[in-house]
Amino acid sequence: MHLVGIVTALRAEAGCIVSARIPFNEVVRINAHSVLWLSGMGALAAQNAAEALCQHSITALVSFGVAGALDPNLKPGDLVLPDAIYADQQWPVNLAWRDRLQQKLAMDVTVVNGVLAHSPEPLTSEKTKQDLAQATGACAVDMESGALAAVAARADIPFIAVRAIIDPVQFSPPQALLSAVYPDGRVNPVRIMTLLLNRSVHLSTLIQMGAGMRAARKTLSRVIQLAGPEMTSQISDRSI
C-alpha cells in the first residue's frame, strides 16, 4: 500500500490539513493513504521528521507550508510548486506528480514553478533575499524542503513541495521577533509585548505578518480542498 508522508514545520500549516490539534513530533494518521508530521522549523527538524516517517514505511514525501518570496513578482498567497529544490546542490521533485497536482487547482490559485531555495535561517532583510535569489536563481525560499528532498532522494521515494508565499521580497520578519517564536511557530505573548513596548518590533509589522500568514493559509487550505486526493489517496492508483 502507498503511504504519503506530509511534513509541516508550523502548527498553522498543519491546521490547513487537519482541524484538530496536532501533537508535536509525532506521526498522525490523516487517512488510509497519508500521515502528517509537525516537525518544527529548520532543516534538522525536517530531516528528523522525514527519517522517522520513513521508519513508518512511507512511499512518498510532501513538504507542505509557507515560503518567502525571492521573486519580486510574488505576493502573499501565491503558490509555489517548484521544479527543484536548491540546498547546496539541486534536488529533484517528481514532476509527473507535481503536474497532476497543479492541474487540480482552480484558476483562483496563482501557481508558479521554478526553483525553491533552502536557507538555514529566516531571511530578515530584502538584501539577503536578493543575494540568495542571485546566487541560486530561485523564486522562493524556505528552511525545510531541502532537507526533506535529500531524505526522499536517499530513500528513493517521490517528493514534491507545496509552498504558499507568506512574505514578499520587500518585507521580512525582523530579527528581534525570532526570539518570541517557538519551534512550531507559536508566539510567546509576553515576549511579543516586551518587544512592542521597547519598540524592537512595531505593531504594523505584526499586522503585515498576520495578513501574510492568512493569505498563505487560505491558499494552502484551498489546495487541500481542491487537490487533497491527488496529494494522498490517488497516489495509490497511479504510477509516480
Q: Which helices and strands, and how do they pair?
A:
Blueprint: E1 4-8, H1 11-14, E2 27-31, E3 34-38, H2 43-55, E4 60-69, E5 79-80, E6 84-87, E7 89-92, H3 95-103, E8 111-112, E9 115-118, H4 126-136, E10 140-142, H5 145-155, E11 159-167, H6 189-197, H7 203-231
**Class from secondary-structure proportions:** alpha/beta
Q: Tell me the CATH topology.
A: Rossmann fold
Q: What number of structural domains do the residues give?
A: 1
Mind telling me the CATH class? Alpha Beta
CATH architectural grouping: 3-Layer(aba) Sandwich
Please give the share of residues in helix: 25-40%
Order of helices and strands: EHEEHEEEEHEEHEHEHH
What descriptors fit this protein?
single chain, alpha/beta, Rossmann fold, eleven-stranded mixed beta sheet, 11 strands, disordered C terminus
Written overview of the protein:
This protein has 240 residues and is of the alpha/beta class. The chain has one domain (4-237): 3-Layer(aba) Sandwich (Rossmann fold), CATH 3.40.50. Helix content is 36%, strand content 22%. The chain contains seven helices and eleven strands. Strands 1, 2, 3, 4, 5, 6, 7, 8, 9, 10 and 11 form an eleven-stranded mixed beta sheet that branches. The two termini are 14 Å apart.
